[in-house]
Design a protein that fits this description.
alpha/beta; Rossmann fold; 15% strand; globular
C-alpha cells in the first residue's frame, strides 16, 4: 500500500485529503503540531476501517520534521508520497504587516515545505520513485491586494516546486502542485487577521473584510481533496492543478509557465 505523509491535517484541505487518500487505499500519516487536534479524524478512520496514523510535525522545526519522517518509517514504512499542505494565512496591507508576521508566513508556507522535501528526498532519489504534492493557491498566479505576503509565499512555493520538478525528474521523483481557489475552511481562524491594520484605507477596510466574508460563503473543500488524491495517486500528474471555478480561468496561464522544461531538459542518469 502507498504510504502518504500529509501535513496540516487538523481541518480543511488536510483533514479532507487525509480521509480521501485513505479511502483511495493509501496508508496515511496525518501530520500536525498537536495530535490531540486530529482525534476526530482518527475516530472517523477507525469507524470506516481506514489506515490513518497521527504524527507530530512542526514544519518550522527541522528536528520535528526529521523526527516525524522517522516515525512514519517505523509505523507505516517508507514514504511514497508527501503532501505539503500546512500553511499560514495573513490578511493585512503589506506596508502594515510586521516583519515577524511576514517571516512566520514565509517560514511556514515556503521553508516549511522545503524542510519536509529535504527530509524525504534522499530516500526517494535512491529508490528512483516518489511523489511530492505541494498545496499552493490561486494567489500564486494573482497578486491579491491586502494578501500580499500570503500571495508572495505561494508565488515562491510555486516557483520552488517548478524548479525542483526539473531537478528531480532524472531521479524518477515527481513534484506537482494543487492550487485551490477560495473554499470554506478554517484558514481565517488559524491565520493572522491583522485587524488593527484594516484602517490603512477605506479600500483596505472593505477588501480585508471581503476576503473574510468570501471564505465564509465559499463552497466546501471536497473538490480540493479529490484533486490532491489525483495528484498524489493518479497517473502522470501535470505540474499544476488549479481547483475551483474562481481560478480555472488561470489554467492556461499556469500551463504556459511549463515552457521552461523545453529550455532545461533534464539529463537522463544511468
Amino acid at each position: 500500500m502507498t504510504v502518504v505523509l500529509i501535513t496540516g491535517c487538523t481541518s480543511g484541505f488536510g483533514e479532507k485529503a487525509a480521509l480521501a487518500l485513505a479511502r483511495a487505499g493509501a496508508q496515511v500519516a496525518a501530520g500536525c503540531r498537536d495530535v490531540d487536534k486530529v482525534e476526530h479524524l482518527l475516530e472517523t478512520a477507525r469507524a470506516e476501517g481506514l489506515v490513518i496514523k497521527a504524527v507530530t510535525i512542526d514544519v518550522c522545526d527541522e528536528v520535528s520534521v526529521r523526527s516525524a519522517v522517522t516515525a512514519v518509517h517505523e509505523r507505516l514504512g517508507p514514504i511514497d508520497v508527501v503532501v505539503n499542505n500546512a500553511g499560514l494565512h495573513l490578511i493585512a496591507p503589506a506596508e502594515m504587516a510586521t516583519i515577524e508576521q511576514s517571516m512566520a508566513v514565509l517560514d511556514t508556507n515556503v521553508l516549511g515545505a522545503l524542510r519536509v522535501m529535504q527530509a524525504v528526498l534522499p530516500e526517494m532519489r535512491e529508490r528512483r520513485s516518489g511523489r511530492i504534492v505541494n498545496i499552493t493557491s490561486g494567489a500564486a498566479f494573482v497578486a491579491v491586494p491586502h494578501m500580499a505576503i500570503y500571495a508572495a509565499s505561494k508565488h515562491a512555493l510555486d516557483a520552488l516546486s517548478a524548479a525542483m520538478a526539473n531537478e528531480l525528474a532524472p531521479f524518477g521523483v515527481t513534484i506537482t502542485t494543487v492550487a485551490p481557489g477560495c473554499f470554506n475552511t478554517a484558514i481565517m481562524d488559524k491565520g493572522i487577521l491583522a485587524r488593527e491594520t484594516f484602517g490603512y484605507s477605506d479600500y483596505a477596510a472593505q477588501q480585508c473584510q471581503q476576503h473574510i466574508d468570501d471564505v465564509a460563503r465559499a463552497p466546501e473543500a471536497t473538490p480540493v481533496a479529490a484533486a490532491i488524491v489525483a495528484a498524489a495517486l493518479g497517473p502522470a500528474p501535470r505540474l499544476r492543478h488549479l481547483v475551483g471555478d474562481d481560478v480555472q480561468v488561470l489554467q492556461p496561464e499556469a500551463d504556459m509557465k511549463d515552457g521552461y522544461q523545453a529550455w532545461f531538459a533534464p539529463p537522463v542518469l544511468p
